[in-house]
Specification:
globular; 230 residues
């Protein structure tokens, strides 16, 4: 794995025009269920951040390609779970991940749409959250909204450490680096709180609707029965 990482890093450094596409493809692979554990995209993103900070790579190109890769990877996993449902977990490749799958199911049920966002930053569950969202039939537009927002913030947070390190070595003020890091952190926090608030409001509305329905059903209509005339 180290040799592969070094080879890809060397290729990206020497062929800058291909850097965005290659990093995007690796990000796509890392976001796929089961496959992601074998792809060292995270380490390469840290390196890419350093190259961006040193002026070697174009930050917007790398951010765009990697965001597209991350969004598509999660979208494929989600579509697989939504189309096949629970029977997808009967695939032999999932047998060694039953505990992770069980934890992911509980995680999705507890946090709802926010689980898509949090799952990006939680390595052990990252690759399983989208497919579980599909299995649990999360609405398409809800998933894709969280998918896109979380991908942008996730990629930015992976690029930031290397970028800040390179820029600090080149003489950029510490205040600027801290401002960028604070901006990323506030974006993550704001998006999470927004998704969590929206999920809680939907839960409360669903609970009220269910309670009203149960109350209406419990009140049986009183019908006066009149004897038939002979």
């Amino acid at each position: 794995m180290d040799n592969l990482l070094q080879s890809v890093a060397a290729f990206v450094t020497e062929h800058q025009s291909w850097a965005g596409l290659i990093l995007g493809a690796l990000t796509f692979a890392e976001s796929l269920v089961l496959i992601g554990a074998f792809v060292p995209a995270t380490a390469l993103m840290l390196l890419a951040g350093t190259l961006i900070g040193g002026g070697v790579l174009d930050p917007f190109e790398v951010l765009a390609w990697c965001t597209i890769g991350a969004v598509l990877g999660d979208a494929v996993s989600y579509a697989l779970g939504r189309r096949l449902g629970p029977r997808v977990l009967r695939i032999p490749a999932f047998r060694d991940h039953r505990r992770t799958i069980a934890r992911t199911r509980l995680f999705n049920r507890r946090f709802g749409v926010a689980s898509i966002f949090i799952g990006r930053f939680f390595g052990p569950l990252r690759a399983f959250v989208p497919i579980m969202a599909g299995i649990l039939q999360m609405k398409w537009w809800t998933f894709q909204t969280a998918n896109l927002l979380s991908a942008v913030v996730w990629i930015a947070s992976l690029l930031a450490p290397g970028y800040l390190a390179a820029r600090s070595l080149s003489g950029v003020s510490l205040e600027l680096g801290l401002a960028i890091a604070a901006g990323v952190a506030l974006t993550v926090l704001g998006a999470f709180l927004g998704l969590r608030f929206a999920a809680s409001r939907r839960s409360i509305a669903a609970a009220k609707a269910k309670a009203a329905s149960a109350s209406a059903e419990s009140v049986a209509p009183i019908v006066e029965l009149k004897p038939k005339r002979a």
